[in-house]
Amino acid sequence: MPGPIVILGIFVADTAYRAPRQPRMGETILGEGFKLGPGGKGSNQAVAAARAGGDVHLVSRLARDAFGDLALKTWAEAGVTPEVTRTDDGYTGAAYIFVESGSGDNAIIVAPGVAGDISEEDIDARADLIRSASVFVTQLEQPLPAAIRALQIAREAGVTTVLNPAPAAPLPDGTLALCDWLTPNESEAEALTGLPVTDPATAEAAARTLILMGAGGVVVTLGAQGAMLVQGDRAVHLPAIDAGPVVETTGAGDAFNGGFAVALSEGRTPEEAVRFGIATAGISVTRPGTAPSMPSREEIEAALRA
């Protein structure tokens, strides 16, 4: 049996507002809807991976408050094993999400709360769990030193490492060399390389630059254009899967990463893993919300067959 999927990341409570446009500074407008739900990239990816059939453990920090309770409830329902430190000081994170009603596109502000205190000591305390993993996944919402320490532990143990470089941020030299897979979207790939990314051809160019910078393989997610997989001499564009009308794109990248991690943990080829991630994301955008939009294994398999 493969080892578990271990994910390092944060939970935030998503406060999602739907309106025709964002207000200008000093302006108040009426919205068309509001929803409170579970979010945070690490948490979303963990929920996506668990619903897709993975044995998932999530390393994080929570406060002892209502949003922390929401996190534990969310993970229990999805089948995620929490590996968390809870504290009486501070607050569990929250996110403001604006959803443009016409397109479903979004803009987000994240306040990580106590998850902003995840430390290298937290990682060292769970080093054995990370070493036991088949796949380790992290992002850039928690402090970077903790992410780098976890990638180092995983890499030294021969665990497949995935870094989703979101939100985009400068990375210290040597960070990409710890990553078997890097999974940026268009804007993140552009931020890391300085190259414009608008289509599969420009995504391939950015991916090759990221490999020269140290990444083992790169998957640039392209939304409605699918994803570009680059590894060694191989470059493959895999198209998106249309699972229905787009309702909301929030969390689509997290859905992809969760599905991608599950497929890697099962020993699928990189192309199969990317296709599995694309199907996971393709279903998620047909539903509102982030964690609640993540599909089941059966739904993903049906989308792939279709």
TrEMBL record:
The entry's keywords: ATP-binding, Carbohydrate metabolism, Cytoplasm, Kinase, Magnesium, Metal-binding, Nucleotide-binding, Potassium, Transferase
Residue ranges, compositional bias (Basic and acidic residues): 296-306
Protein name according to UniProt: Ribokinase
Keyword Kinase: yes
Active site, UniProt feature: 254
Organism from which the protein derives: Rubellimicrobium mesophilum DSM 19309
Catalytic activity: D-ribose + ATP = D-ribose 5-phosphate + ADP + H(+)
Pathway given in the UniProt record: Carbohydrate metabolism; D-ribose degradation; D-ribose 5-phosphate from beta-D-ribopyranose: step 2/2
Ligand binding (ATP): 185, 221-226, 253-254
Cofactor(s) listed: Mg(2+)
Function: Catalyzes the phosphorylation of ribose at O-5 in a reaction requiring ATP and magnesium. The resulting D-ribose-5-phosphate can then be used either for sythesis of nucleotides, histidine, and tryptophan, or as a component of the pentose phosphate pathway.
Binding residues for substrate: 12-14, 40-44, 141, 254
PANTHER family noted in UniProt: RIBOKINASE, SUGAR KINASE
Record gene name: rbsK
Keyword Manganese in annotation: no
Ranges where the Carbohydrate kinase PfkB domain occurs: 5-296
Protein location: Cytoplasm
GO cellular component annotations of the record: cytosol
EC number: 2.7.1.15
Cofactor: how bound: Requires a divalent cation, most likely magnesium in vivo, as an electrophilic catalyst to aid phosphoryl group transfer. It is the chelate of the metal and the nucleotide that is the actual substrate.
GO biological process: D-ribose catabolic process
